[in-house]
Design a protein that fits this description.
Elements lengths: L19 H9 L3 E5 L3 H10 L5 E6 L3 E3 L4 H5 L9 E3 H4 L6 E5 L2 E5 L4 E4 L5 E2 L2 E4 L4 E2 L7 H4 L1 E2 L3 H20 L10 E5 L3 H20 L10 E6 L10 H14 L2 E4 L3 E5 L2 E4 L4 E3 L2 E4 L3 E2 L25 E2 L12 E3 L4 E2 L13 H19 L14 E6 L2 E5 L5 E3 H15 L3 H15 L29
Parallel strand pairs: 1-2, 1-9, 2-5, 9-21, 11-18, 12-13, 12-18, 13-14, 20-22
Antiparallel strand pairs: 3-4, 6-7, 7-8, 10-19, 15-16, 16-17, 23-24, 24-25
Helix pairs in contact: 2-9
Length: about 475
């Protein structure tokens, strides 16, 4: 049923199954599955393999899983960092065959079947699931890394929150400076994260003025949402993006469509029409890429058939998510270039794809062990959602039905609570959202660490996870 064990892992004489030594040897003889990345895809793969007749090692440079869809609420002081993070060891505390290794992966030796770790010896595997996710994409725009705040990791969110709160505190200390300037926040990217961040920034300012009595002067602040396309929420039905734009503009956000940013400078951005837009804070949420992550080293492996390379540096995979030249290696989540029959041609880099592909990769490992052929991955679209702010959201269901306003907001809240890991986290987030619904002050508007840290440093090549 399973591949023959190598001699170096075969049970030795004198180690009976009833002894501790015997149990350790038996565990070591199981097929070894290494999952790199503890994001949505990595957790889905490990959960599928939990209690299966394999030994699973999950490796990540962080000892916690981050619920990325709510990072923008951490960045805008709606939630605390601990509300969207959960220890990986706790997740698998009842899965005796799953081990967590807190380490930084520096590379993969595909020929020797070894995962290379920083400061430690290599980790051998029989099957490997690469779920290292993606990182913020600059699209070649100069100045993004040096002058813009990104929003892809928990540390990114913490930095941005400290900076935003520091800007508001400074504006309160000098509500009417001699130049008449007001704090300007430019959010670059009109996708779900950009729309949600712009709406949440506006709510943060409103809450700070109403409940914390911040003095921001007669003009308050400016929040500008920029996107190179002609509509918000690309990929959603057109009426969803139009609704989001109407709500944001009605609440005070300036929406600039067809505005391509060509440079991010200290103190503002340059647009493709030559306009210089002053902004003390630039939040870059224009998209993601696999370039620079661990998976990018696998993108040069032979691809399935004479096809165009996957976009965004993603790794081209077979229909069952395995590598063409290495069928014992699977790539899942944002790192994988997965073909889709839809008009885009590729599965989107969203949490639903990550969870489904991670689980599928794990099932293929078990099929390999049973000597069965691989199965093609099929993405089941469960819809798309984006919140614009309090009692305003867009929820696009697979049936084509679009929910907007309070109904869409309720659907958005319910879905995120379902997928959020940990009872304590669900309870805290639910209470915060309930408080906000009744317009009561909520969220930790606290500045930790440096009063005003700068934009995040580039991520380690192996740090991105789904």
């Amino acid at each position: 049923m399973y591949p023959a064990l190598s001699a170096e892992r075969a049970p030795t004489a004198g180690t009976g199954p009833g002894s501790r030594a015997g149990l350790a040897v038996m565990a070591s003889t199981r097929p070894r599955v290494v999952v790199v990345g503890a994001g949505f895809a990595g957790l889905a793969a490990a959960r599928r393999l939990a209690r299966a007749p394999v030994g699973v090692t999950v490796v990540d440079r962080h000892n916690f899983h981050t619920f990325q869809p709510l990072l923008y609420q951490v960045a805008t002081a709606g939630l605390g960092p601990g509300d969207v993070a959960y220890p990986v060891r706790t997740i698998f505390r009842r899965s005796p065959n799953v081990r967590f290794l807190h380490a930084l992966v520096t590379g993969v030796d595909l020929e020797r079947r070894r995962v290379c770790l920083a400061g430690a010896g290599p980790l051998a595997y029989d099957y490997l699931v690469v779920a290292t996710g993606a990182t913020a994409a600059s699209f070649g725009v100069p100045g993004v890394a040096e002058n813009a705040f990104r929003l892809y990791t928990l540390e990114d969110a913490r930095r941005l929150r400290n900076h935003v709160l520091s800007v508001l505190e400074r504006a309160d200390a000098a509500p009417g400076d001699q130049d008449g300037a007001v704090p300007v926040f430019a959010v670059v990217g009109g996708g779900p994260t950009g729309v949600e961040t712009a709406g949440a920034l506006l709510e943060l300012v409103s809450t700070a003025v109403r409940h914390d009595r911040l003095r921001l002067g007669p003009k308050g602040v400016r929040i500008i949402l920029l996107d190179a396309l002609d509509e918000l929420l690309a990929g959603f039905p057109a009426r969803g993006g139009q609704y989001a734009q109407r709500v944001l503009e009605a609440r005070g956000v300036e929406v600039r469509l067809g505005a391509r940013v060509t440079e991010v400078r200290r103190g503002g951005v340059r647009l493709d029409n030559g306009e210089e837009l002053a902004a003390g804070t630039v939040v870059w949420v224009a998209g993601v890429t696999v370039d620079g992550t661990l998976a990018s080293a696998l993108a040069g492996e032979p691809s399935p058939g004479p096809r165009a390379p996957a976009p965004g540096g993603r790794v081209g995979v077979e229909a069952d998510l395995s590598l063409t030249a290495h069928p014992d290696v699977f790539v899942a989540g944002d790192a994988a270039g997965i073909r889709s029959p839809g008009p885009a041609g590729w599965c989107p880099q969203v949490a639903q794809v990550a969870m489904q592909s991670g689980s599928h990769a794990a099932r293929q490992v078990l099929r390999r062990l049973r000597g069965e052929p691989g199965e093609a991955f099929t993405y089941r679209d469960k819809g798309m959602m984006a919140t614009v702010g309090r009692r305003a959201a867009v929820a696009c269901l697979p049936s084509g039905l679009v929910l907007r306003g309070t109904l869409g907001w309720g659907a958005w809240l319910g879905l995120h609570l379902v997928y959020l890991i940990g009872f304590r986290n669900r309870a805290v987030v639910l209470v915060n959202w309930a408080w906000r619904y009744f317009r009561w002050p909520s969220g930790p508007r606290l500045i930790f660490g440096s009063a005003e840290p700068g934009p995040a440093a580039p991520q380690s090549p192996a740090s991105g996870v789904d």
